[in-house]
Amino acid sequence: MTTPKLFIVIPCYNEQEALPITAQRLVELTDDMIEKALISPESRIVLVDDGSRDDTWRVISDLHAQDPRFEGVKLAHNAGHMNALWAGMTMSADRCDCVITIDADLQDDVNAMYAFLEEYRNGADVVYGVRGSRKKDTFFKRATAQGFYKMMNAMGAELVYNHADYRLLSRRALEALLSFGEVNMFLRGMVPMLGFRTAKVYYERGARVAGESKYPLRKMLAFAMEGITSLSNKPIRFVLVLGVLCALMGVTMGVYVLVSLFKGHTVRGWASTMMSIWLLGGLQLIALGVIGEYIGKIYMETKRRPKFILEEHLR
Ligand code: UDP
Ligand code: MG
Asked: Nearest CA to 231 among 192, 190, 191?
């Protein structure tokens, strides 16, 4: 295998404090990798400015002017972390052999990239960076994150535990991912759908090098909601199940009501009212659930996901 062209894609939202430090570290890292012939000198670092309101873009332009290794991509407005990653990957796909995505704050250990490349050389198309522990995260972040993974798995979305968006994708895995047609996307749930040979690399997660988290609780909740609704139809099915339970309850109530009626200790009108409430409530929920099932199907159809992903074709 020739030395691969590696593209490192970094989403940056108001990262003027972190970027200079991050850039310096990445220069050292890629210098070393090029020297050790692990990556080609044609490798690039793609900085995606996700509509920052601070001086992020000026920092990026300066970096690009000084060192052609840095490329800048500027999004016209704040499109969000996932879309910024998507933009960077789209811009890289036709020129790279493999791509690594990492956050601008370097909370994820850059040295793990050596292990990523090693796995890639050994034939992995997808390499997941997995956090060994979250000692440096705040208690709140740790607790919410863990709850999130548990809930997602309960919802039936296949996620790699403690893996965020620090990963390597080979060119073909990247192209397969980019062929997904959905607009609402949750990358870390989509990558496991690709298949291909995968590997995991464990590393310790540190604190931000500078600046503060760009994920306030509001964005975290929106993110979790996106994760659930973009990967799973289970909430819809839940309505259906609830409806069936209600209807069953209605039948039980029916028996109870009739028994009470014949024993004679009921007020006039009570029996009919009670039966209608439960039965109609149940029927309405069932109807909603059935409609929901079809809406769920429509939803999945509108994503226009590829029906298959080709790994090899011998002919
Ligand atoms: N980010 C982005 N757009 C946003 C929010 C965040 O591109 O709207 C980037 C941010 O610059 C960083 C990465 O996404 O590179 C992760 O954000 P952050 O480190 O603040 O999240 P945390 O580690 O606190 O979950
Ligand atoms: Mg961070």
From this structure: 190
